[in-house]
Amino acid sequence: MAKKSTKVIPKKRGPRGKGKDPLIALRMPPEERRAVEAWAARQEDKPTLSIAIRQLLAKALGKK
Fold this sequence. Notes:
The chain has helices at 30-42, 49-60. The radius of gyration is 23 Å and the shape is elongated. The chain has a domain at 30-60. It is an all-alpha fold.
């Protein structure tokens, strides 16, 4: 007997992300991370580590 062919239906992976920035991984020595965290703790809005890094980068680039 001949084998029955079955139709393979690919899994849906969900919608593409909208308005999300690409991920950039960063290795940072512990002393630099502590310095960024200390800077963030002194800010009024108490940013998370990732937001603090973005804010410091924006300042360094003259965007704030």
